[in-house]
Amino acid sequence: MANLPSQEQPVILAEHIQMAFFDPSPLTILSDINLTVYPKQSVAIVGKSGEGKTTLLHILGTIEEASAGNLFIAGNKVTASLQNTLRNKHIGFIFQAFHLLENATVLENVLMPLKIARKNVSLSSPYYKRAIELIDRVGLTKRLHFPTSKLSGGEKQRVAIARAFAHDPDIILADEPTGNLDHNTAQDIQSLLLDFVKKEGKALLIVTHNLQLAKLCNACYELESGYLRPI
After folding, report:
1. Which residue range forms the structural domain that includes residue 204?
2. Distance CA 91, CA 148 (A)
């Protein structure tokens, strides 16, 4: 497939994605997934537990490799040699379980994707200044040098949001970002995430059980029996 014109180029284009396991017995998780996510578009995927929503998100984020199908990120076909480069440049992740470095500080966690991408994070660098700005925007300036182990669940997810945006990705992939939070905190995090996506001009692909959150997205799909259907 040739690269698409820039004005029409999706951030993510998935074609006939399949995922199957054969040990200890054959099991098909994803049968034929086709999905397009455009710049600044927000897309939600809902479905029952065990349908493979997280597996699909990991495949689209190049964390896992599909059994079959093609995946394009920002017009580039994902291959074994390119997946790390494309992930580090174009994708930010937010996880239900936060996946923070618990003994590292808030600032160190937000700087981590920049370090992985080998950016200059010295005190005078624009990347360091962006990290500080993001931490301020999620309301954690006073926690800048706190180890994340000392934070509440809501504060940890705020750190995760700042971290996801730190390297200025094209799309945020969020896996149940409010799933580990109480109702009021979940509402705050939901509003914060959607506000960030809008103001930063990013695309969002979110897996969630929260139908209220899903309905706030531009498009919503249900994953059932290995297929996506619009709802």
Report:
1. 6-230
2. 23
